[in-house]
Amino acid sequence: MIVKLLRLLGAAAFAGVLVGLLALPGVGSVGMAARDASDSFQSLPDDFSLKPPPERTTVYSADGQVIAQFYFHNRESVSLDQVAPIMQKAIVAIEDARFFQHGPLDAKGSFRALVTNAQDGGIKQGGSTLTQQYVKNLLVENAKTDKDAEAAKAPNFGRKLRELRYAVNVEKRLTKSQILEGYLNIAYFGSGAYGVQAASQYYFSKNASELTLPEAALLSGVTNSPYFYDPEINKKGAIDRRNTVLYRMAELKIISKQQADVAAATPIKLDIKKPKTDCADSKAPFFCEYVKDEVLGNPAFGKTSEDRERLLYRGGLTIRTTLDMKAQNAAQKALALRPSRSKTATEAMVKPGTGEIKAMVVSKDYGDHRSKGQTTLNLAADYAHGGNSGYSAGSTFKVFTLATALNKGYSVGTTLPAPNSTTISGFTSCSGSHFEPWTLGNAETSKAKSANLNTGTWGSINTFYAALEQRVGLCDSIHMAQSFGMKQSNGKPLEQVPSQVLGTNSIDVTHLAAAYAGFAARGQYCTPVAINDVTDADGKKIEVPKAKCGKAVDSGVADEVTRILQGVITNGTGRGMAIGRPAAGKTGTCESHSCALFAGYTPDLASAVWYGDPAAPFGNPSPGIYGSNIGRIWKASMEGALRNTKPSSFHTPVDDFGNLDQARIPNVRGLSVQAATQQIENAGFAVQVSPRAIDSTQRKGTVAYTSPSAGVKSDTDTSVVIFVSNGNGPAPKPRKRRRGGGIWPFN
User: Fold this and answer.
1) What pTM value is reported for the model?
2) What is the distance between the alpha carbons of residues 106 and 123, in angstroms, rounded to a whole number?
3) Is the peptide bond between 54 and the residue preceding it cis, with omega within 30 degrees of 0?
4) Average pLDDT score over the chain
């Protein structure tokens, strides 16, 4: 009689009558509280938000392989037609058999449960419809604080009435199928799996559309008590609950008794497939860490750190990255070639002209167990992307002073002293500060007394490069490095010290590889990037930061740098590192042999390798360690990464930078002897000054003319003689005779 009456009442009246009944003597002892709840039902807001539950973010390599997943809850929502019909029937049978018959509320179940609960003085019995459970789960999932989450699960009448009120709203706005779909995507199925798709993948390594009757019954039973009925934890309890579901389905005529018997006799066969959670289980953990820090640290993904974290872990993003798994695997394998297992090696690969990071590896295992040699520090990256304070670049930094010299018009034949040790003064910072004289020596004994841009680079002669830096200017060398994206690993500008030419600034291999990629791209430098494309859970594109590309140096200068660096591999310290295609590179050895590097490139790929002790990158000498030793890591990784890729050729330099054999004599008439000497030496010639001044219209003490004359192309082993003017009128027409390879006048 009471139930028939309740069917005639609306949802609000039903709630009021129910709670009012609970206040009757003999029914319960919660009269006043129940009446208060009944009175407040109508005043409860019904504008319930249907904001979808948090979704997991999936990160893909450039070739479509899953490399990581980030989530607050492991969930992948699917449409109802992607869930096996038997799974849909099983969950309805055990959770709300009358789901498709009743309205927003199930009068029978709710009345029975509320009366029982009132008699017991709290929430002891269920009775919630699937709609109410869907509402409850949405409230819990979208809670912003722990307090809100606890309120959504609180065992009191206020919470139940709120669910009832919201359930009315939901059933007005959604169809039964939509509600069932929402419930299947939000329910917790144990073992960290939220939603039927994640649960199906976790327990059976298959999609929800492929579930069989025994599997569907097993999953449907878990939701009642996800911990107790988790088949991984309590196999017997899971079987008993599964069978309860099966025979309930038989009772409801969904399946036959025979089908239930056969399914109940079927043993549980789990095929556990654990998701790649965060970076720990990633195929490329350090690249994964780089992507993670890019999202969490870049305002493009949210105004606040909380917004960015919510987007990554709850936003259901699809992140497509630049990672090339072939290159990644080749680099990872190559790290095994490091000279000592007690030291660490790290490498990054970047595609020229795009800035795309193609590989990022560290020889240490990713993890928090330092005692096992693990680390979560991304030693290939800068501090902003999970790295440390960086490490010395060694002689790989000489390339920027080389580019500066060529950019200023210095001839390749420019010859400078190259003693085993030297002291050089005259260095000035960009702010005009002067430095004390700098004393330095070569890493290896130098047999030559002088060198030019070719031989000085091929032999990586420190004293030669110190003299070259003094000539071209410390400030200009710094500016050149900065134009190729170089900065300290901590994000600060490069320190302006004379020793920077030897790589004393702390850098990371990702930015070093990107800089060398700039030379491979004929002077076009692009900032390194790891993310190509991002879409949200609805398939809407999110704007992501793109590589910033610009001309760091003229193409002709970059081509000449490449030509010289090719010689490092064929004739210099990188000899033996040929990879069967055009390649250029530079070795680097840190002070006291504390670390070593090799950076190099082809037209298609650039790479930088570092080796040493990351705990003491500047103070742990390793005798015998040179950049040439580390080159074999670079060689193996590049060969593997470029396997089956058609070789490309570098551009032949078209600008006239001179060569080892000949150069043009510069015009220095009218200059002081000191200025003229420097220009002539910069062109690659030795200088002699005639001991006797001659008649000339040029000012006294300045250059009257040279022999050979200005503009003449001559062998660089020729000495150019400067004749100084005495200021006494026109110069006599010289008679000439050859002496010692030069042209000397005599009266």
Assistant:
1) 0.75
2) 17
3) no
4) 85
